Amino acid sequence: MLAQTAEQTKMGWLRGIAGLLVIAGSVPLVMFTAGQPADKSAQLALLGSLIFLVAAGLLGPLLARLSIVVLGVPFRLMGRRHGGDAGGALAADNLRGHAYRLSSAVVPIALLVGLSTTFASVSGTFQEVAPPGAYAESDNWLRGVELAMLAGFGAVATVNTLASLTTARRREYALLTLTGATRRQLIRMLGTEAVLTALAGVVLGILVAAPMSMAFASAATGELLPTIAFSTYAPLVLGPVALTVLTILFTGARATSESAVTAVAAP
Questions:
Q1: Residues sharing a CB contact under 8 Å with residue 137, sequence separation 6 or more, in sequence order
Q2: DSSP label at 258?
Q3: What are the Cα distances from residue 233, in Å, to 105, 143, 183, 236, 245?
């Protein structure tokens, strides 16, 4: 089991170097974007965010492990305070030991949040600096349509990935059941894992969007912080979180309803 876990946390050096090279190549793009006119800078910001998302995908296992180490601290402390009954420590350690599996779940969430953050930054800042008129309204409307389409595709990919990963762990749930874990404890563990996974995706998504969003804000307003309408942005962040938690819990409830003996015997 330890050998298998260790193998799952390794990230190929070629993949790691590729991810670092993508990030290094994006630095000049960030600087170039900050010096362009607002309309051109907006297009570059969206392109740059996609490039940073590629880097996040390449470095996914490492980034996922680091985020879980940090975000999992409160859950592990809660687990110790409750004598391990809270399931937080088990969930945090379990996710940290399966970085590849976690990155497959986190990256789609980061994609959703990263693109949403970039679009919200560009649209919000444009509304602040652009004079009222048909062009500005049409431009914002088109960006909203693009965001909705990308969010739709991203939501489908996220649900499929999370459902597949959760279902594939039926044998793991069965082994935990046979060693004394109750179904309630398994669901609680899955709930904690879902929250950690969602938080990791949100944090990575915001970090991915930050460089290009700040570069665009600098080009458009001279300030590093973009203008974001939180009434619009909040659902874009809370949506992926709710989607992640509900998908994992629903799929996990179905996966844990099977007989443990049958699940262990299954290939």
A1: none
A2: S
A3: 22, 14, 36, 5, 19
